[in-house]
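Lecture notes, unit on protein representations.

Consider one protein chain, 97 amino acids long.
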Amino acid sequence: MVELSNRTSPFQAELHTKEQARGSVYSNAFLAVYWLAKEELPNCRISSFLEVIEQLGLTDMKYFQHRSAGSFREMFLELGHQVKQQVIEKCRKANCF
């Protein structure tokens, strides 16, 4: 078994690392997008902000491949949907609003 793992290619090792980091990479990307929106910074800065995050030590961010304008738009829409759902839920639980 050890021999077999020593024979795996570096490409396979990279793929394995990428799969392990998937959840945290998406979480970090959504957190970065949320922070930019919360701070009212321009949307066009997202890609460069993710690059800075990667340089600061989150090297797994290199696996986040969805850096097109359409992908970021979808992320903003999803974040907006989640915030809206939270507000609706708080309104439903309130005695008055």
